[in-house]
């Protein structure tokens, strides 16, 4: 079929790089992300997920994937301190946190104090000990 002139997602970064996904592409990718959340992370309907990412395409994929899996998305800003993250993890009893290299060190500082936290998902090209790599799993 023909590609729609109205993409479901059209994202452009500061350097002019862009990502355009049709509704079909967004559907396929969000199903893959939902599988990562339910299979690799073992998340089930009602489980809480904290998402701390800049507004990159993966942020939108995680939003749609959480809707698909029935998990409760708790968005957060990258300006949160380790203390802020600890508070949110403890109060929400989140089982999973999804973030990038800029926030992962703060999560590592407080993660041991959160008994409910079972999975840490890193959106990065690199790897970090104790974290699942989102791009590898996708």
TrEMBL record:
- Keyword Ligase recorded: yes
Q: Which UniProt keywords apply?
A: ATP-binding, Fatty acid metabolism, Ligase, Lipid metabolism, Nucleotide-binding
Q: Which reaction does it catalyse?
A: a medium-chain fatty acid + ATP + CoA = a medium-chain fatty acyl-CoA + AMP + diphosphate
Instruction: Give Gene Ontology CC terms.
Output: mitochondrial matrix
EC number(s) from the headed UniProt entry? 6.2.1.2
What EC class is this? Answer: ligase
Q: Which domain of life is it from?
A: Eukaryota
The entry sums up its family as follows:
Belongs to the ATP-dependent AMP-binding enzyme family.
Specify the protein name.
medium-chain acyl-CoA ligase
Q: Which gene encodes it?
A: Acsm3_2
């Amino acid at each position: 079929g023909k590609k729609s002139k109205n993409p479901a997602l059209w994202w452009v970064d500061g350097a002019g790089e862009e990502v355009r996904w049709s509704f079909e592409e967004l559907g396929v990718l969000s199903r893959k992300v939902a599988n990562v959340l339910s299979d690799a992370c073992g998340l089930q309907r009602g489980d809480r997920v904290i998402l701390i990412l800049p507004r990159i395409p993966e942020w939108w994929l995680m939003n749609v994937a959480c809707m698909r899996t029935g998990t409760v998305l708790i968005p957060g800003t990258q300006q949160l301190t380790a203390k802020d993250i600890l508070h949110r993890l403890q109060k929400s009893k989140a089982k999973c946190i999804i973030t990038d290299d800029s926030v992962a060190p703060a999560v590592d500082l407080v993660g041991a104090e959160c008994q409910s936290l079972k999975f840490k998902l890193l959106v990065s090209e690199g790897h970090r000990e104790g974290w699942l790599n989102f791009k590898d799993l996708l």
